[in-house]
Amino acid sequence: MKVSGAELVVEMRGITKKFGSFVANDNISLNVHKGEVHALLGENGAGKTTLMNQLYGLYQPTSGEIYLNGKKVNITDPNVAIAEGIGMVHQHFMLIQPFTVAENIILGNEITNKMGVLDYKKAVNQVKELSKKYGLDVDPDAIISDISVGMQQRVEILKVLYRGAEILIFDEPTAVLTPQEIEEFIEIIKKFTQDGKTVIIITHKLKEILKMADTCTIIRRGVKIGVVDVSKTTEAELAEMMVGRSVTFSVEKEDKVPGKSVLDVKDLCVKDSRNVQIINKLSLNVRKGEILGIAGVDGNGQNELVETILGLRKVESGSICINERNITNKKNWEILQSGIGSIPADRQKHGIVPNFSIPDNLILERYNVGPFSRHGILNRKAIKDNAAVLIDRFDIRASSPEAKVNTLSGGNQQKVIIGREISNNPDLLIASQPTRGLDVGAIEFIHKAIVEQRNNNKAVLLISFELDEILDLSDRIAVMYEGRIVKILNSKETDEKEIGLLMAGGQSK
Ligand SMILES: Nc1ncnc2c1ncn2[C@@H]1O[C@H](COP(=O)(O)OP(=O)(O)O)[C@@H](O)[C@H]1O
Ligand SMILES: [Mg+2]
Predict the structure, then answer these.
(1) pLDDT tens digit string along 27-82?
(2) What pLDDT score does 5 carry?
């Protein structure tokens, strides 16, 4: 490992954390050396955040001990952690929206002058120095609600540095970043370790571990599986340790000549509620037997495009056709019956009814048609039989086949949605962020299901912020920027760099 021989700065010994009778961390040990980037890898729910919350003093271990620089410590709350030089950037930022960048950074740690009055100028200067030193470009006077998520993360990092952190913990830091911001983040991390700081990163993204970490501890279902030297491992090995079985990354995609156009969007213009042109003269088509991926940074009109196709937004001008039938400004229910299936970006809000059972969620759009109801009376047996088939086919894992959907993990909730939408046999499947927040096992399954649609000669419109996903699945890639399609590329003839550039409003070769 890069820093073999370096001193142990963090030592967690035999940490067990129980929530009631549930064991979230089961006798986990973690050794982190000075100056290294240590990744904590595990599927959703493996217990990563719980382990780090104990290092940061948010939770107390049920049993086990923590040593910092060889000294046993009792981290009773985050103030103790901060005093010990530990800082944590949480998955969900904790900034005060109407305050400025500088105010957020110094909040709770104000520099006062001799009179006990806040010395704002001095504080701002310190913030500027820190941001210069580590390449954390921010405008100290900007208001938080006006800056991008990537910028907000920098504010969180500066806040931690401002408090003198030597050990920095990041919980899923790249989940919210664009590809360019991820590259910049990796550079910033390098500066920290060059400066002798120690970094712990929670993640389930294997590629990023290979790019930035020295060491990786893998946790599965609350148990530590192992520690690996990142320079001597592979994506496949990490995935297998994380999931407990081997995982295939690239989906088999047979060569296919696309058929007739299923979705045709022409010169589409849409305004949002503030009368801002959110979609601007957008044209695209998706053909039978192809996946068209839409790449773009969040907020460039992708959601609005999907909502417009689904009849949830008004078309100002232009047209939308499905199978040559004009559906422009038709009602949502009418459009859904014209052969569209949709995996919504916000699965909790739009994809499921959380307190309904799995069988009921699997027929949400068809509860009033045969075989699920007759003369207004639900046919419980048909609903149950349908569920049994789909639970098996889509590998939906639940405590019982009748379980409520809100008791399932995110990955299994998503399988319920996909199972329902695909079993409707749509000509066009719209998949928005189909694997957001899911772990590799579930991602693998969902990717296969999407490609199978294409192989069965259906059209798929895929919208994703994950460039890897777009590149792996799509036949053609449309890059969306500020409400327009800036370019449509053949996925075999492009790469992450070119797409990343177009996504940021740049020009490709
Ligand atoms: N405060 C809590 N109360 C009860 N259960 C919890 C609490 N925090 C986490 N858990 C459970 O512990 C497990 C591990 O959670 P977490 O550490 O957040 O996982 P990860 O960060 O690896 O995704 C999950 O099953 C989660 O539901
Ligand atoms: Mg977590």
Answers:
(1) 999 999 999 999 999 987 889 999 999 999 999 999 999 999 999 999 999 999 99
(2) 72
Q: Where are the alpha helices (DSSP H) in 173-316?
A: 179-194, 206-212, 235-243, 302-309
Pairing status of strand 476-481 against strand 290-295: parallel
Note the CATH architecture for domain 1-85+166-247: 3-Layer(aba) Sandwich (3.40)
Residue range 467-490: average pLDDT? 94
At a CB cut-off of 8 Å and minimum separation 6, what does 261 contact? Answer: 285, 286, 287, 288, 324
Structural domain boundaries in the chain: 1-85+166-247, 97-162, 262-503
Smallest CA separation from ligand 1 atom 10, residue: 24
What one-letter code names the amino acid at 109?
N
Task: List, for residues 360-400, the tens digit of each pLDDT value.
Answer: 999 988 888 888 988 888 899 999 999 999 999 998 988 88
| Domain at 262-503: CATH code | 3.40.50.300
**Tokens coding 454:** 């294409």
The CB of 494 under 6 Å from ligand 1? The reply is: no
Whether the CB of 19 sits within 6 Å of ligand 1:
yes
